[in-house]
Amino acid sequence: MAAGQTKNAAARLFQAAELLRQASRAYAFTGAGVSTESGIPDFRAPGTGLWSNPELLSLATGDALRQDPVRFYSAFLPQWLRYRKAEPNPAHKALADLEAKGILSGVITQNIDGLHRKAGSQTVYEVHGHLRHLVCSDCCETANFEVAVAALQQGTLPPRCRCGGMLRPDVVLFGETMAPDFDRAMAELHQGCDVMLVVGSSLKVFPAASLVGFADCFIIINLEPTPLDHRAAVVIHGSAGDVMPRIAALVLSQ
Ligand code: APR
Ligand code: ZN
User: Fold this and answer.
1) Backbone dihedral region of 250: left (phi > 0), alpha (psi from -120 to 50 degrees) or beta?
2) Proximal ligand: closest to the CA of 142
3) Model pLDDT, residue 6
4) Whose Cα sits closest to atom 4 in ligand 1?
5) In angstroms, rounded to a whole number, what is the distance separating the alpha carbons of residues 19 and 92?
6) In this structure, which residues have their CB less than 5 angstroms from ion ligand 2?
7) pLDDT grade, residue 5 (50/70/90)?
8) How do residues 117-163 score in pLDDT, each as one tens digit?
9) Which domains can be identified in the chain, with CATH numbers?
């Protein structure tokens, strides 16, 4: 526990709210844990998470997509369709509220599910990409994601661009460079970030997790301990859908 961290749960909520209220440039940094309460399993969940499925994990690479696109799409498309149907939960909504009220300057997310935008967040940096459209591997033209759905239903995977090139999801696979939003987020943080609100991330995946290091101080909200808990100003072990609305209510009640 870092110096100044308190053991009292209510005091930690107040401390987090106070830090956010006093911040001039606060950002949220979110991971898969912010979306589990929307029915999307995180990556480390035993049984359902990507990391507990070695076969799926080995397919989540740019090489696997190029070598066997039909296998790649057959493995991931069903779960991506569930992501696209998911609805934001109270944690996403609390973050959107905090931005609307001028407390947060934006949300940096590792998630590709689009739920922050769906909840109303306006400034969102999706550092691992998103599922709003597909992009051609050859000519870079974009296409509606429904083209992949149609190809799945018609047995014509992988989806093809008008130029004949393969359409791929606009997400960052293992071994690939980060999405342009990663550099944009870093540039924003370089302008200053006095408080980072880290919600639902194991903080084990780099380079995304390195962005937390740009903040003068950070608050961690996560179900379980993370490797950066000892450096956080406040650590709250709880569910994002429960904790975030409580913090937002405290910040906005003053
Ligand atoms: N509330 C708070 N924390 C939660 C909740 C919840 N409801 N549900 C799960 N968590 C916590 C878990 O305990 C875990 O520590 O969220 C964390 C999620 O960690 P990961 O699954 O590792 O997700 P993330 O940090 O986003 O991983 C980053 O890993 O596989 C890659 O590219 C993928 O973007 C992903 C990246
Ligand atoms: Zn093309």
Assistant:
1) alpha
2) 2
3) 61
4) 33
5) 20
6) 136, 138-139, 141, 161, 163, 165
7) low
8) 999 999 999 999 999 999 999 999 999 999 999 999 999 999 999 99
9) 1-40+88-128+177-254 (3.40.50.1220), 43-85+131-171 (3.30.1600.10)
